[in-house]
Amino acid sequence: MILFHNIITFILLSTILAGLLAIPVISLLYRFKVVRKIEVDFSTVIEDRKEKYGTPIMGGLIFILTILLINYIFNYNIYTRIPLHLFSAAALLGAADDLLNIFGQTRRVKTIDRAWKLVRVHKSILMRIFYFLTLPWYLFSTIMHMFESNPGSGLRAHEKILIQALIGGILGIWVYRVIGSSLWIPFIGSYDIGAWMIPLAIVVFMATTNAVNVTDGMDGLAGGIGMISALSFMMIAMFTYNYPVALLAGSGVGSLLTYLYFNVNPARVQMGDTGSFALGAFLTILSFAVGKPLLLLIACFPFVIEMLSTIVQSISRRLFGKRILQMAPLHHHFEMIGWREDKVVVRFWIFAIACNILALWLAFF
């Protein structure tokens, strides 16, 4: 009962603190013109979405700062110290991308074709050797570029994925040393996978972070699904007496609740890559901290299908010249066929609730 009372207190404190931070954060974003630019938003081909031009981004700072402040002050221990640092790192990566997209200069995409041409025609033999040796890097960057809708002036996909892999690797080492190497599999049980926990953390971290980022395309969409998923992991941590993680998850629930107040359509602020990367990192951390990372596939299934729709659309468009959806990710397809934005968002929330009920059932099966 004391644990439950403390978690509720954490949620309330986070909700209030996020409310106190929201207005100053939004005001500062307006003041420094950290707002959405129409030229780097491909979704503005949908006429109604042009109204979002000028809306502040990096609104994820509302829940990011709240989670960090509450936990650094009241819940800083071996189970939260490294996760909070990694959560901050993911937020900083997203912030760098947001700021470069707004204030940076357009960056030229260096493809494998251009690198191979330089190998053949460059005057310097040393530079030919250099470009030949770096062909794998250019191949990697070219493949990643396939999934970029509008590269703009922000970080390239291959740059983001490598930094995410680094953060995921540190998470994996922390999980291996502190949480353990036991992997829970639904209906089967737990198995010790040893050091394989580290590459698993890398893959899950990259996948979840980018899935949330892709989903963040409508007012309230990613934030609502994220809050529902965080609530599920909070309940799992609470019923398994994982006190520090339950409090960490509770701070996310409370702060996201306040964020949604300002983010529902028409949004006063959007989370940007700052918020979406941080939210993806937060959910990944919670899943590993409760010992059930595979549960992310169910609890965050709306994020999963959004990511899969983008991958399938990109591959089909690049290789076969055909679009499977009218626009990817999936939420924009529904918008293109006539669904109102609020209808899409609420239905995704309902779907997320159903997925998380199933996730909770599996967790305690």
Task: Give the topology.
Elements: H1 2-31, H2 61-74, H3 81-103, H4 112-121, H5 125-133, H6 135-145, H7 157-179, E1 182-185, E2 189-192, H8 197-215, H9 221-239, H10 243-263, H11 272-289, H12 296-299, H13 301-320, H14 330-336, H15 341-363
Antiparallel strand pairs: 1-2
Helix pairs in contact: 1-2, 1-10, 2-3, 2-10, 3-7, 3-11, 4-5, 7-8, 8-11, 8-13, 9-10, 9-11, 9-15
Keywords:
365 residues, mainly alpha, 2 strands, 69% helix, globular
Structural summary, described in words:
The longest helix has 30 residues, at 2-31. A two-stranded antiparallel ribbon has the order 1-2. The chain is an all-alpha fold. The protein contains 15 helices and two strands. The protein is globular, with a radius of gyration of 21 Å. The protein has helices spanning 2-31, 61-74, 81-103, 112-121, 125-133, 135-145, 157-179, 197-215, 221-239, 243-263, 272-289, 296-299, 301-320, 330-336, 341-363, and strands at residues 182-185, 189-192. A hairpin with a 3-residue loop joins strand 1 (182-185) and strand 2. The protein is 69% helix and 2% strand. It has two domains: 2-107 and 153-363, no CATH class; 108-150, no CATH class. The model has no long low-confidence stretch (mean pLDDT 90).
Give the biggest sheet. 2 strands, antiparallel
The number of strands is 2
H/I helix tally: 15
Question: What's the shape?
Answer: globular
Ranges where pLDDT stays below 50 over 5 or more residues in a row are: none
Strand order of the largest sheet: 1-2
Amino-to-carboxy terminus distance: 23 Å
Overview in brief:
Helices cover 69% and strands 2% of the residues. The protein has 365 residues and is mostly helical. α9 (221-239) runs antiparallel to α10 (243-263).
